[in-house]
Design goal:
- The chain is an alpha/beta fold.
- The chain has a single domain (5-198), classed as Spore Coat Polysaccharide Biosynthesis Protein SpsA, Chain A (Alpha-Beta Complex).
- It has 8 helices and 9 strands.
- It has helices at residues 5-8, 43-54, 86-96, 114-123, 146-158, 164-167, 180-183, 192-198, and strands at 17-21, 37-38, 41-42, 58-62, 75-77, 101-106, 129-133, 137-145, 173-177.
- Helix 2 (43-54) packs across helix 4.
- The longest helix is centred in the last third of the chain and has 13 residues, at 146-158.
- The protein is globular.
Length: 199
């Protein structure tokens, strides 16, 4: 059994990485989602702030043009598989991260919290990967052991699998209950109205 994030972890400084995927085309938003302001802060900036509060010692921004990462206190990484969906971003994150524990998040979850990120890390004590669970699984709110997951994910990628949820069936995954508001995607400006009511 791997050590828990709380016994070795978040509060005592055991290193983990957070990678935020910023490569989407934002077609429904009408403008770039990563830089769309929520309460005056770009959505990606809000996710990065939660990651930093959770204790991440490395924060990566994966995908999109490098200009999208301007002004954000994180390291931009080129998506190794641009335009091929989020599984490519997850693989890029695992290959790029400095630490074995890697939390991968979508940039369009502006109400993600440090507590959610911490619970994903902590769940890796008993699994190769963890995924946030509301009424469904949220695969862009997940944590991965790079050592245990990168090889299998790359293997299914080479067999032309592009869906994260189908790739993950090969892994020992723990579902982590998370608040729905923390992981609801903001795809249009109208999505912010019900989210604000639930905060």
């Amino acid at each position: 059994m791997r050590p828990t994030a709380r016994s070795l972890g978040i509060m005592t400084g055991t290193p983990f990485s957070v990678a935020v995927l910023i490569g989407g085309d934002s077609s429904r938003m009408g403008s770039d989602k990563a830089t769309f302001l929520v309460d005056g802060v770009p959505m990606v900036g809000r996710v990065v702030s939660a990651a930093r509060e959770a204790g991440a010692t490395e924060i990566l921004l994966v995908g999109g043009p490098q200009s999208r990462a301007k002004g954000i206190d994180a390291t931009w990484k080129k998506d190794a598989y641009p335009g091929e969906g989020p599984l490519g971003g997850v693989i890029t994150a695992l290959k790029s991260a400095a630490h074995d524990t890697v939390v991968v998040l979508s940039c369009d979850m502006p109400f993600i919290t440090a507590a959610v990120i911490g619970s994903l890390v902590d769940g890796l004590a008993d699994a190769q990967a963890t995924v946030g669970r509301t009424d469904r699984l949220n695969w862009l709110c997940a944590a991965w052991s790079r050592e245990e997951c990168l090889g299998p994910l790359q293997g299914v990628w080479k067999r032309n699998e592009r869906a994260v949820h189908r790739a993950a069936v090969l892994l020992d995954v723990v579902e982590v209950p998370v608040p729905a508001v923390a992981v609801r995607n903001v795809n249009t400006p109208a999505d912010l109205e019900p989210m604000a009511e639930e905060k």
